[in-house]
């Protein structure tokens, strides 16, 4: 079982008593993978191989070639994590978007089960 500090909006999450909250199981894997996906590769001094090229695509045009490259980068980045056995993705309608924007839905197979992540374009 995995256990780590729980993160919320880039900072530690706290319990109602003021203690640091813990994440367990698939929640740890989810927050680890999201942190890896949104951090530029080499941006953390202690883990220079961590991160991805996903942030480079934020300001790029949303043409089919760019979206395909982004999709491939997200899948490959997730597969770098030893807990991920398979990665598949598709562009899907973003349920939170008001303008019909699409989001990248990642479906990741782990030994513990299947994890789905939704990456929204800013």
TrEMBL record:
Name of this chain's protein: DUF4388 domain-containing protein
Species, as recorded: Thermus tengchongensis
């Amino acid at each position: 079982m995995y256990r780590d500090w729980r993160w919320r909006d880039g900072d530690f999450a706290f319990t109602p008593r003021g203690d640091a909250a813990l994440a367990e199981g698939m929640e740890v894997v989810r927050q680890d993978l999201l942190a890896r996906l949104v951090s530029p590769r080499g941006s953390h001094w202690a883990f220079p191989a961590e991160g991805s090229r996903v942030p480079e695509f934020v300001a790029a045009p949303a043409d089919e070639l760019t979206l395909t490259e982004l999709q491939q980068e997200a899948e490959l980045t997730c597969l770098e994590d030893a807990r991920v056995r398979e990665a598949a993705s598709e562009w899907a309608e973003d349920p939170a978007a008001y303008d019909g924007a699409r989001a990248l839905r990642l479906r990741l197979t782990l030994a513990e089960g299947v994890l789905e992540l939704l990456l929204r374009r800013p």
